[in-house]
Amino acid sequence: MKKATICILSAVLMSSITLVDAQETKNKPSDSIMKKVKDVDEIVLIGYGKQKKGTVSGSIVSVDKKILQDRPTTSLTASIQGALPGVTIKSSLGDVGSVPALNVRGRSVAGNSPLYIIDGIPSSAADFSRLSPADVENISILKDASAAIYGTRAGYGVILVETKKGGGGKMSISYNMYNAYQTPTYLPKYVGAVEYMKIKNEAYYNANNSVGYFSQYKQEQIDLTAVGTDPDRYPNTDWYKATYRKMANVLNNEINVSGGDKIRYFASLGYLKQESLSPTKGMDRYSFRTNTSSKLSDKLTVNSNISFIKQMINDQGGGINTTELARISPTMALRQSNGWWGSINAGKVDNTFANTNPVRNNIEGGDSKSNDQKFMGALSANYTPIEGLNVDAQISYSNWNYRSGTFVNTLNPVYNFLTKAPIGATSRAINNYSESWNSDELLNTQVLVSYEKKISSHYFKVLGGASYEDYTVRSIYGKKSNIPKDGLHALSALTTLDGTLDELRSNTQQYAFQSAFARINYNYQEKYFLEGIIRADASSRFAKENRWGYFPAIMASWRLDKENFIKSLNFINTLKLRGSYGSTGSINTIGYYDSQTYMDNNSSVLGNVIVGTAVPGKLGFSDIGWEKIVTKNIGLDGSLFSNTFTFSVDLYNRLTKGALMSNQLEYETGVLGNQAPPINAGDVENKGIEVTLGYNKNFENGDFYINANFAKNQNDILSLVNSKPLYSGYWITQVGGSIGDFYGYKTAGLLTQEDINNKYPKLYSSSQPGDIKYVDINGDGVVNENDRTVIGNDVPSFTYGLSIGGKYKNFDLNVVGQGVANVKVYLDKESSQAFFNGGNIKQYVLDNRWTPENPNPNALYHRVLPSGGGTQNIGVTSDYWLFDASYFRIKSITLGYSIPQEAISHIGLKKFRIYANLENYFTLRGDKRMKDFDPEIASTRSTYPYLKTISFGINATF
Length: 958
Known about the structure:
single chain, 958 residues, mainly beta, five-stranded mixed sheet, 43 strands, 12% helix, TonB-dep_OMP_SusC/RagA_CS, membrane
């Protein structure tokens, strides 16, 4: 994948140079004109303001609006995947309502999320994800010391969003609609019933070396299944086909109104309806936004921003257990011919699979509903008493409310199709209903004062400000069992049954931030730029003596293109060298009261009476402090050949000091689990390079562009508080290693008879030819836990993106690609291992396994065994189950056509465009072994499928 990526980027650069050279001489401007051509005054968002990109000294990137155009994604986060260097977006499950994870410049030990600011209001990743691209005016990401002005929570980057404000005088009405159809990118490929039975017999033979006696299935059963004339007793069930929809529909409608002069306005209304692949599940999302800006006088402007998003997910079923779906055998009946749920597996009753039938449990198991609402409102005023002096004040309020309810139905037993008797352990006699409510309120006030002045060739701007954030978090949970009738969905009503609930608990927590900050900007002749930042933050989460943190930063840049020795180079339009150094902080993993020891409520039985008691809750640690994150960055930006070719290069180093970790305290105190607070326990470094290349060309009847970016990041753990490694599942955290390191045994293919004869050291004494061959790393003649080592990493060290497009006459095309390299995924259990926990078997095992007839030591799968249990040579963590998760994916292809204005103006239309889009349809993958997992959401367990989309839409403007 690395070679492919380099080839792609080289092709981009060579194409750019070739196209530039091919310009006709008659179209080439004179040298004097070329030197007057300036870079486009692109506006980027900065902390508490905006700035021309040409005057910015920090590492700030903005999202090209073409990337967002007509993407039928239900997540804004997914829409920008691959668009920005150093910004890694990992899609979560493809189910409705999921929110992708966004990471800037590598990972730390925990709590790597950036800070989101939407219209000046601190927001969540979900708030950003659910924004409509049609509402967004600008997205900028602060990646270096420029984020220091946000202090405590800016250590891992800041995502700034400005929504549209309207203007332009006359009212304009726009309507956008698309209809999309979603199908899985990959579904697991399992064998059919006949192949399953044959290879299950082979597995039993391998385990017991006795033909026939230990066979799971007789030849008669196999033959009857192959004939297919008695599906009641000898079925062949495709469980994935039976469980999921073939296709899920998405419908999106948006309308917005904008305009105004002295009173500028923008309002939008949206409705999104999305089906899940689960036939019982779907989502409805409603969104509303209104922004106004009123110029009350030459000195006073008042602004308001109000938004509301309501997302409802309704599942009329009990949910799909994807693990049980991966386990159930194709020899098990889904339903019998008389309508009963399936009970027969290859001619015999199967109590286990009758009970875990994923289709039955989804349809009859119960239902769930969730209602997710977010309100955000801000009122601000800008006052300019004298020229150059600005006073801004803003008060904002946001409220997140989430309510969910889950009803678990009673279940009638499954009946034995052969005997007509109920099967034990397949019924559920007691139902229950649980309901939860969560609320998160924020009241935020801030005041900014800025003054700017130009004296001759010297420009100064000073900004000072203060802010206060007050958070209140509430939760309530209740549960009631043994309800007389399924489907009652109100705890308040259920309490009237007997006046009691099984569980009822509530919680209220409060915390606050107090901040003061300042920034000074200076430039000389718009050639030399200097910027300084200082921020002081206090958080109630810390003990008083550790409450304040201070975060300074300094940045500088030099416009080389304005120097005489560069002006003589006619092909250079702009060239800027910049550098930054500063510190930020992070408290992402700090609990609200981790600095304090507190007690929890509990209950005990004294005699026959239940009494309330207090038990130790969590150990406090008053010395907890901020993670201190020091960032260094040096960059070079430029544009060449009349701004046709652009480039940007950044080298960075981010050092996290005192990374917050909770399990380090276990070594010192013996306090385990949730009782252990985090402490400042380690230092982690991320360093790397980011490159962006662009080519833009206008020509008669159209234009063309091509942009590419790539980033290389290296992560190193420099220290831990006691230098002891931390083990968690497949991973290890240790000094000298990296975040995301897998830890286990190295393998060297499969054991041969020659290895057995030569007494090759074996991890298991019972190992036979065809079993996994583990490597004796330390050469002591024994394979044991001392031979474990780092075997891979699950964090991509190389990420890249590509966008190509343009317009010709009334047609437009936009293609977006994205990829990662040098990354592994660990796939064992149901995702790859044959018969794990009595489960199914994948086609790739059947096609590529070791057999006595094919004793290939490099076969892709070892000899099959009846179970994936750890006693059978395959249950330990090893690189045998590491798969290459590198990929390059064409994320989006959009082809549009705009009807000529002269053909629609007579009916009041300014613009009418139709388009078609393909999303996630084409993928080049690094792994060549198991090809039925999606590298973006790979998991050790079976997961909800990732989706590809075909859509058709319209844009109309009146």
